[in-house]
Amino acid sequence: MGLAWVVLVVSGVLETVWAGALAASGTLHRLWPSLLFVLALAASMAGLSYAVSHIPLGTAYGVWVGIGAIGTAAYGMAALGDPLTAARVLCLLLIVAGVVGLKLLH
Length: 106
Hints:
This protein is mainly alpha-helical. The chain has one domain (3-104). It is built from four helices and no strands. Helix 1 (3-24) runs antiparallel to helix 2 (31-52), helix 1 packs across helix 3 and helix 3 runs antiparallel to helix 4.
């Protein structure tokens, strides 16, 4: 996997980090989660920006959003008490299939 893909995957994971930090920030009223939110958001966007200079925009953005959505949903279910149902897991697996498809068809 090329550097652009590694950066893209890390940026997608950082999307999960900033989403989790945003939830923990209390609408940006808690200092440390708010700071983590801003830093992770900036790093995630910078990585996405780098990736789209090497990977087609639609592919890069779809993969980035997919990783972030899957990671954020999994975090919500594992740590925040979001519902864990077969239907939700199936929907997440469909997102995984889409992300894998975008990578394979790149």
